[in-house]
Amino acid sequence: MASALETNVVEVTPTGDTMENLKTSIKSFDILCEGPCEDSTYTKSIVQKEVDIMKKTYRSDEHRRMSQHSFLVEARAYTHILPALNDLRPPIGSPVAFDIQVLDNNNHFCFLLQDMQAGDSKHRHQHLALGMQETETAVRWLAALHAHHWDSGSWSDHQLWEHGGYWTLDKRTADLDNLERDWDVVVANWRGAYPEVFADPKVRQLGARLRQAGPRLSRALAQRWPTHRTLIHGDFKTANLFFNAGAGAVVALDWQWCGGGLGAMDLQYLLHTSSSLQVLHERERFVHCYHQSLLHHLAALGLSEAAAPSLEEFKEQFEVATLDYGRFLLGSMWRKNTPDACAAAVGSINQGMHKRCSETFVWLVQTFATSLEELSLLNETDDEHCPTDTHTSKMKSTE
Fold first, then answer.
1. How many CB atoms are closer than 10 A to CB 107?
2. What average pLDDT does range 228-256 have in this prediction?
3. How far apart, in Å, do the first and last CA atoms of the chain sit?
């Protein structure tokens, strides 16, 4: 799909340990290349991400196809979307793709990407929860990304996900069947440590309430604000970000779940998976920061303020997106979550903070319970803004 790696390679030197999971292998190398002048050389630091879809056992054929499609989406994003973002000044940063190969009927993928931690790049992972400054940097990055793809349809043009994010209901319809049962397990696991919280009827009934609200929340995100749709990253969390503290910059990788959506979906996901409790207690500050930054970038692109949601509209979008993510957590992620499991996972960068910090988990539970009471959309008598049910998969053909 993309091929920008020079053929004048002199030497390849491994520079780190191989990281592997069920289907993915990640290795890093320094590649010594011949320079343009006689006897001159230069070095490229790369990460090789190799994916073999057939190495993993899947729940179903649909699950396998979804995984396969996610890596096709990532390949298309690196080829068609991200180069233009990297060319902006300042860039909306992502690793440069030197080469991408899609092989074996879309079952084998090889990405050769810029190593963001090598040499003088000064980009580093943040293994702990994001603080105020890092969160603001990431929020402003999101606003810039979303502004540059505002109401563009670029996700459809390049066969990305029609609904970005791995947690959307069109990808997770089976979760609704388990939601109430799994939530009862969670309540039993946590009521000993936080008896007052889990004795609250609004909290105890959270599974049933989110199961009922789930389809309406999903329809609202897909249909209620059609002119506010943009390209979202779909997995914008600490594990997929590299920060350059000195430059106040951030770079995002792992674009498997990018596609169409509301900017609020990326924002709530960042805050609720990756930020500290201090940030969460001042969540509204970052909602305002995102909204103001979005307006700034849209104006710089020649779009009027009327093209964007008002602050009140955006707050509603944010609350809907938050509850929709809550529906996913209750139906898919929290059944095995316990106070002891949180303590054991405290250093696991790929886990959301709600699975690494008991206080964050409890804060989110209470936030979901309160938001369900207050969100006016759920009290409407009809779905005039969302007239049809679209909870069938929007996965584009992978052939």
1. 16
2. 93
3. 14
Beta bridge partner(s), residue 42: 33
Distance CA 276, CA 130 (A): 6
Place of tokens 């070095």: 43
SS3 110: strand
Provide the sign of the torsion angle of the four alpha carbons 255, 259, 262, 265, taken in this order. negative
d(CA 310, CA 360): 29
pLDDT tens by residue, 336-374: 999 999 999 998 888 999 999 999 999 999 999 999 999
Specify burial of residue 47 (Cβ count, 10 A radius: 0-12, 13-18, 19+): buried
Chain segment 87-100, per-residue pLDDT in tens: 998 889 899 999 99
Do residues 14 and 45 make contact, with C-beta atoms less than 8 angstroms apart? no
Rounded percentage of the chain residues whose pLDDT exceeds 70: 92
Residue 382 pLDDT more than 60? no
* Strand 24-34 with 97-103, pairing: unpaired
Gap between the Cα atoms of 27 and 104, Å rounded = 21
Q: How confident is the model at residue 397 (pLDDT cuts 50, 70, 90)?
A: very low
pTM over 0.85? The answer is yes
